[in-house]
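Consortium newsletter contribution from the modelling node. Members have asked for a concrete example of what our holo predictions look like. Here is one, prepared for the copper (II) ion complex that several groups have been discussing at recent meetings.
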Amino acid sequence: MKHRRLIPVVALSFVACGGGEPGSGGNNNDTNTSSSSAMQPAATRPPPSGPLTIPDWYTRDDDTETIHLVIGAGDIPDNNYWNFNGAINGDIAITVPLGYNVMVHFDNADPNMAHSLGVSPQIENFMVPPEATPIFEGAITQNPGSMIDGTMPGEEETVEFVAEQAGNYALVCYIPGHTAVGMWLHFTVSAEGEGGVQARQL
Ligand SMILES: [Cu+2]
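And here is the predicted structure:
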């Protein structure tokens, strides 16, 4: 489901600055990238290493075997707002236990641009817009490739799916051009029941 929200969910200190004029949304080569990782080539970057942590946007309920993820597009202006929880280019790896229900509470705080979210099979070339076919039934937002009817600025949407096959996948935005400039994260389903987040930067 999708609806407009009135109050931003995430209040990072960066948001209050609101300084820079974002680049033209119509030109994917014109984005104002402030992170050096945006300059990485298209090939998949390996996931960050290190111990799994539980940030405040990751909640695990073993009684109901449910993972809740709160993921925002454009919570901070980095990469022209085209980021997930402030991260791009696989700088975050999200791990969920095999067989768990996953509820992703997605909101778009980018003032300018539609975004979307879904879990796709592992992708080799992020320069090519990924097919809007999720690896798990239901693991994608509505109209994911549409700049006029995707998850629009100020909207939020919840997707729910079962992580029914272990493996390494990608959490991506399906708006054309967005994965090419880094709008993707790693997403892993763990057969060992592990859950949490690894991050190169947060
Ligand atoms: Cu996007």
